[in-house]
Amino acid sequence: MKPTVTVYSLSSSKDGIVRYIGQTTGRLDKRLIHHHYDSKKLSTIHKSNWIRSVITSGYEIVISPIETNAEWGTAEIKWIKFYRDKGVDLVNTTDGGEGVVGYVRDAEWRRRRSELMKGKPSANAGNKLSEEQRRKISESQRGKVISLEQRAKISATMKGMKKTPEHIEKIAAANRKPVVPPTDEELAAKAARKFANLSARSKGKELSVEHRQNIASGLATAYMEGRRRGHMAKLTDDQVREIRVLLADPMTVQSYLAKRFGVSPSAISEIKSGKSYQFVK
């Protein structure tokens, strides 16, 4: 059974004229990335030459869907013929219909390919994304939810994979770095950023005087009761100070303090690193 595909077009942001027709079973944004990658490899095919010429001229490649849930091969041939009959100068080198959509390479081919690519630098090595590119990527990924099927595929792929000694050493080196508690200036800057984000989300919304008074009263009551971020604090301020004094002794065992004060070892660790109870002086 042939898979269903999305037939798409590529055009330049300069004029919007369709120059290429393709098909894909995946997402269009990922397919566009592949087209960019192919053009960076200095491929001599007409499509790659056209993509490079558009980018070097300061414009962008625009990908647009033409037909969704289409039949593999047949729909692509139909649309290539449609545009060519209209006199559009497509950069497609064939009439469409070919390709390896849904084809899975065998293990031997993957092994040979892996051996061939080992030691070769990535085509994107040394390239740094601009702030504008980072912003676009962030916006495109925001709000996306990975389906349960995708999660299962990722889990199956990662099972049994072993880290290289170099990878393990990098992780160990990162964990060996001493944790420096944030300074008062850093905490103030973080609070200011958080307030700015909340302010931006609430822009245009006006709270009634009664609502403001209820919020202020609730915060004051919660703080007096020892609640932080909506839940009861497990440790009092005096206990936190006592724990800090005990932690100053290098012979103190954190698991012992956890049992003594009835909290988890991670809670003691966060007090030591300054991540929690920052308000206690």
Topology:
Elements lengths: L3 E9 L5 E7 L3 H13 L5 H11 L4 E11 L2 H12 L21 H11 L13 H11 L6 H11 L6 H12 L7 H18 L7 H16 L2 E2 L2 E2 L4 H11 L6 H8 L3 H9 L8
Antiparallel strand pairs: 1-2, 1-3, 4-5
Helix pairs in contact: 1-2, 11-12
> Count of helices?
12
**Alpha-beta classification:** mainly alpha
Amino- and carboxy-terminal Cα gap: 69 Å
Mean pLDDT: 80
Order of SSEs, N→C? Answer: EEHHEHHHHHHHEEHHH
**CATH class categorisation of one domain:** Alpha Beta
Strand order of the biggest β-sheet: 2-1-3
**Uncertain segments:** none
* Beta strands, count: 5
Structural features, described:
The protein is mainly alpha-helical and 281 residues long. It has a domain at 4-101: GIY-YIG endonuclease (3-Layer(aba) Sandwich), CATH 3.40.1440. 51% of the residues lie in helices and 11% in strands. The chain is built from twelve helices and five strands. Strands 2-1-3 form a three-stranded antiparallel beta sheet, sandwiched between helices. Strands 4-5 form a two-stranded antiparallel sheet. Helix 1 (28-40) packs across helix 2 (46-56). The chain is elongated and about 80 Å long. The N and C termini lie far apart (69 Å). The model has no long low-confidence stretch (mean pLDDT 80).
